[in-house]
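Q: I'm writing up a methods section and want to include an example of the input and output format. Could you take the sequence below and give the corresponding predicted structure tokens, formatted cleanly so I can copy it straight into the document?
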Amino acid sequence: MKIMIASKLHLKSLLILSLLLLLASNTALAQTGWRLERLETSGGDLNAVYFDNSKRGWTAGDNGYLSHTEDGGRTWTRQVIPTDRAVNDIYFRNGDDGFILAGNLILATNNGGQNWREVTRFTPAQVGGASAELYSIRFSSKKRGWIVGSLSRRDIVVDSLLLSTDDGGVSWQRRRAPVRDELIHVDFVNDHRGWIVGAGGTILHTEDEGETWVEQRSGVRATLYHVDFSNSNHGWAVGERGTILRTLNGGDTWMTVAVQFRARLLSVQFANDHEGWAVGRGGLILHSTDGGETWVTQESATRENLYALFVEKKRSWAVGGDGVVLHYER
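A: Here is the clean output for your methods example:
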């Protein structure tokens, strides 16, 4: 009888231990859901990532580096583009027509990224003797697109740069912004409504397809590096010193989210109104499931800076220093 009771107790202990190990395993998987790989970039950083569907995407960065995948990031193929400047952004307005921003250059493709050509170069003579740096590009409609950046002299920013196109990116014209601060990222949710963020806590907003831009009060002076809206009301912006802002009314009011870290955040994107990610310096990845009201850190398995993020409903990618590429599947 004592042997039988002991056996039952031993079996019960084994079941409890197995359950605990299973729970620990699931917790570990949840914490390490980002799969890490490193592309050969000769030590250069990856600054941009874009997917036009769950399989086909691009990542780009320093020294004119560009790689392409057709299998969701399982394999990457290096592509040659006509520049050795650092790529700041890559964006496709449809399956064929895409754009790359590199320094003062705009590169374009009309065959789905098979070939890239230079379409526009902003020389100092065109912008008052200053040096142009183009950071972010988005299209609000089939023909109308926007680029933001800065103008500098001797590495000191002297003015903002706001460009628009009405012919699908064939030609670009400078538009006057209501601020002279460096403009870093632009996002549109439809043909009419868009936002721009930049240095000094700058947030600009348009409701008339970019005909006029007005300042919104961010409540901060920290540089904001990225803005993302899931619809006309719900938006988020991130920046220096762990700054996270959120709005529930299209930016009429922006709320500062209290967090326990001070690392610079460089990109934010939401899959829907509730679930989103932010990435930044030192391999930092943050995750929110309540619309950005609270954030928790996720294990990234890297200490490299993460510069860009691309989020879909079931997959996400983050890229950063020394060729780091992270892939997450839900």
